[in-house]
């Protein structure tokens, strides 16, 4: 999972970039300026075609561009790979745009440029949000659930590889009541989803 770009833009008669941060560590040195230029162009284009008050995700090859255009014409764009959780991107955009609107005077938005706007937090946000599990509790819980699922699947596979069948284990178990064993047997007969291959 990777974030490549975090931008703040203004949507007026023309969309223009106010501030941006880039992570070009996965690209060669000779590609960085062209890629940054293309990311800026893409961000401006998507904001231009987005309605005020909207949140949108646009897929471009293996990248996702997450866009939030506020009703006050302030817009944010995050460009990430397709594995990065959209929910975390929109949380980041909310936070950045709220902070930006408090730090940078609204009169400077229509005429501002990356050189004239004094907002320095984008690089820090881009760096901190590289690992969504460090920031977002839901991503961390999902990751733990995925790990637990893998462990359970591996455990069941190792049991079955040793020649033991789940049916045999259920009926040998002394912890299960007779009614539970009967329920299991009936469910196995009636529902093919209970079969483990």
TrEMBL record:
<dbReference type="GO" id="GO:0005794">
    <property type="term" value="C:Golgi apparatus"/>
</dbReference>
<dbReference type="GO" id="GO:0005484">
    <property type="term" value="F:SNAP receptor activity"/>
</dbReference>
<keyword id="KW-0653">Protein transport</keyword>
<dbReference type="InterPro" id="IPR011012">
    <property type="entry name" value="Longin-like_dom_sf"/>
</dbReference>
<comment type="similarity">
    <text>Belongs to the synaptobrevin family.</text>
</comment>
<keyword id="KW-0472">Membrane</keyword>
<keyword id="KW-0564">Palmitate</keyword>
<feature type="domain" description="Longin">
    <location>
        <begin position="8"/>
        <end position="126"/>
    </location>
</feature>
<keyword id="KW-0813">Transport</keyword>
<keyword id="KW-0636">Prenylation</keyword>
<dbReference type="Pfam" id="PF00957">
    <property type="entry name" value="Synaptobrevin"/>
</dbReference>
<dbReference type="GO" id="GO:0015031">
    <property type="term" value="P:protein transport"/>
</dbReference>
<keyword id="KW-0449">Lipoprotein</keyword>
<dbReference type="InterPro" id="IPR010908">
    <property type="entry name" value="Longin_dom"/>
</dbReference>
<protein>
    <submittedName>
        <fullName>Synaptobrevin homolog YKT6-B-like</fullName>
    </submittedName>
</protein>
<keyword id="KW-0175">Coiled coil</keyword>
<feature type="domain" description="V-SNARE coiled-coil homology">
    <location>
        <begin position="137"/>
        <end position="197"/>
    </location>
</feature>
<dbReference type="Pfam" id="PF13774">
    <property type="entry name" value="Longin"/>
</dbReference>
<dbReference type="InterPro" id="IPR042855">
    <property type="entry name" value="V_SNARE_CC"/>
</dbReference>
<dbReference type="GO" id="GO:0006888">
    <property type="term" value="P:endoplasmic reticulum to Golgi vesicle-mediated transport"/>
</dbReference>
<keyword id="KW-0488">Methylation</keyword>
